[in-house]
Design a protein that fits this description.
Length: 102
Amino acid sequence: MEQIPLEHLLLLGAVLFSLGIWAVITKRHAVVVLMGIELIFNAANVNLVAFSRYDPELMQGQLFALFVMVIAAAESAVALAIVLRVYQHFNTANLNEVVGEQ
């Protein structure tokens, strides 16, 4: 079975990263911004696993990707708790309304 070329994996990582940055910059809903951050983390994971193919004995890329997934899960739990508290206080999840911009 043939391996996927490194260029394709890097292109996938770049697309995921670009979509994540686009979501963080353009969207105003807090949950969508958090989803954009998760896309950025997944882009980093794709790159880590893609480059780990060149070091098959140590599997450092997979270990770092697992570490990033654990950090992303903890970040999601804390961030969603913060979003719920902000929604309870301001009755909105729109970031512009929370910071006072119109």
